Structure formats: structure tokens, C-alpha cells
Amino acid sequence: MSEKLRLDKYLWAIRIFKTRTLAAGAIEGGKVRTADGQALKSSRSVSIGDVYEIRTPARKWVIAVTGLLANRAAFEIAVQNYEDRTPEEDKDISKPLPSSFYTGKRLSKTGRPTKKQRRDLNDLLGNDSED
To answer: What is the per-residue pLDDT across 14-45, written as a single tens digit (0 to 9) for each?
Structure first.
């Protein structure tokens, strides 16, 4: 493929980022750098042999470009277009998960008491009035 391929499109196509917007935001935010630490722009052309350091919320990546992929493809095809050179200590993605899941606003099973819990608490404290 002799045409130019943008860095944000490439990172999206090889499935490092879920959307092109997330890829572009990470690049502009300094989360994607060359192997020597140089900051990049989303519009940078990708060439075979380039090495990039990428920090995502899940893990750190060090990839070498082995092929150019312009459109998003299946995972099996996507992994053939880069070589993962990430050190073993950075590949560890198993992080301890909390006992309750995160809903986006607050931890589940915490916060305000339910109506039944409030009634039981009022009975325990001897409060007759309801709020």
C-alpha cells in the first residue's frame, strides 16, 4: 500500500483504540509517542518499521508497524499488522477488581438506604416521624 495512512486511523484499525476519536484524543494528549519519546500528531503518516509507545487506560503498549491496515478488520487480521514489543512487566493487565462493580456514578450497593432499610433504622433508633 503506497498511500498515506494517518496514525489515528492506523491505531483504530489495529484495534488499540475502540474509536478514531479516542485514538486522536490519546495522540493529542501525549499518550502516543515514538520510541525515542517524541510527541506526535494524529495526522502523522505511518510507515512500516515505525515503533510507537502507547499508554491506554488498560495497559502500556510498545508496537512496531509490520503492515498498514487502512480499515478496521477482525482481530486475527489486525494483529498481523503490528508486532507487540511490550516488556513483560507492562503486559500484566490483571488488576484486582472491587467486590462491587462501578456504575459510573457511585459504587453499587452503597449510598442512600432503601425504604426498608430506612424503616428498620427508624425502628432501631425509636424515631416515629418519616422524612
So the answer is: 999 999 999 999 999 999 999 888 889 988 99
Domain range summary for the chain, segments of one domain joined by +: 7-91
Neighbouring C-beta atoms of residue 52, cutoff 10 Å? 23
Q: Residue 75 forms beta bridges with which residues?
A: none
Taking residue 70's Cβ as centre, other Cβ atoms within 10 Å add up to: 14
Q: Which CATH class is domain 7-91?
A: alpha beta
Q: Global pTM?
A: 0.66
Which long-range contacts link 93-97 to residues 24+ away (Cβ below 8 Å)? Answer: 93/58, 93/59
Residue in the structure block whose three cell numbers are 520510541: 35
Give CA–CA dist 32/60, Å, rounded: 10
